[in-house]
Amino acid sequence: TNFKLQGKVVLITGASSGLGEALAHAFYKAGCKVILTARREKELARVKNDLLSLHPTVPTYPPVTLLLDLSKPEDIPKYASEVLAIHKNVDILVNNAGISYRGDVMSTKVEVDEQVMAVNYFGTVALTKAFLPCMVAQGGGHIVAISSVQGRIALPQRSAYAASKHALQAFFDSLRAELAAANVKVTVVSPGYIRTNLSLNAVTGSGELYGELDETTASGYSPESVANKIVASVAREKEEVVIAPLSARLAI
Ligand code: NDP
């Protein structure tokens, strides 16, 4: 348990796998009231069961799971009302969900660029706008956005992904400046490779699933180590931008 975070309401997007799953464990262990969201109901149920069975001694609040598709922003206000009906407020919003992309610009359909932007950028923006009024009204909160090193540096074959993460960086930098007087903190996290199935779930230029685990994945950080770093930073109420060291194999 972390006395700074104990009892805080934390909503995590993309909590059904990878980094989001690790963040669910880390915030839950800290004593938070976690709300786990994603599209895959079965995976969310698995994560919830793992939280309850793996951390039986945490004097805590039962995790809540909610289905959310970020590519449908029209559903988000209704969804936010459901969340606020359960917990009244959200203290910490962790915008973690995202999809990756593999393809060259010339052979990528515009619909694919739109799909990546819809989830990584517009969905995140809509969700943030849905919870911002309650954070401002309650006089504090913390919004975390999981960007990527590619929110700073664009690699080839990643145009849509890098663009969406650059957009996130700019949006949240602007929001942080706007919120300076409102006591709502904004943290953008820019990790290097993490050992998750992100590339398996990536979309290609023709809109198919990429379906392969990139070789570089193995060189990445464990989701747990990145999650623990993020939770520690939120507990310190720091807006510092957390940048996990780059993978040794990412030649920049
Ligand atoms: P995963 O593919 O394991 O996780 C992605 C998560 O996003 C899943 O839980 C998925 O849940 C959710 N998601 C995808 N599409 C949607 C949607 N339309 N609506 C709602 N949720 C959605 O990969 P990671 O854990 O690696 O990715 C987490 C974040 O970390 C992403 O933002 C990614 O860009 C970022 N990141 C990852 C790096 C890496 O090397 N792995 C490096 C830097 C940043 P579901 O399918 O159930 O909806």
Explain what you see.
The protein is of the alpha/beta class. Helix content is 39%, strand content 14%. Helix 1 (18-29) packs across helix 6 (223-235) and helix 4 packs parallel to helix 5. The longest helix has 28 residues, at 110-137. The chain binds NADPH dihydro-nicotinamide-adenine-dinucleotide phosphate (NDP). NADPH dihydro-nicotinamide-adenine-dinucleotide phosphate is lined by residues 13-14, 16-20, 38-40, 43, 68-71, 96-99, 119, 146, 148, 191, 193-194, 196-198, 201, 220.
Mass-distribution shape: globular
Largest sheet: 6 strands, parallel
Which ligands are bound? NADPH dihydro-nicotinamide-adenine-dinucleotide phosphate
Beginning-to-end CA distance, first to last residue: 38 Å
Structural class: alpha/beta
For the secondary structure, the number of strands is: 8
Topology pattern, helix = H, strand = E = EHEHEHEEHEHEEH
Instruction: State mean pLDDT (0 to 100 scale).
Output: 92
What Rg, in angstroms, do the CA atoms define? 17 Å
| Strand neighbour order, sheet with most strands | 3-2-1-4-6-7
Helix content: 25-40%
Number of helix segments?
6
What assembly state would you assign to the polypeptide chains in this entry? single chain
Beta-strand content bin: 5-15%
Low-confidence runs of at least 5 consecutive residues:
247-252
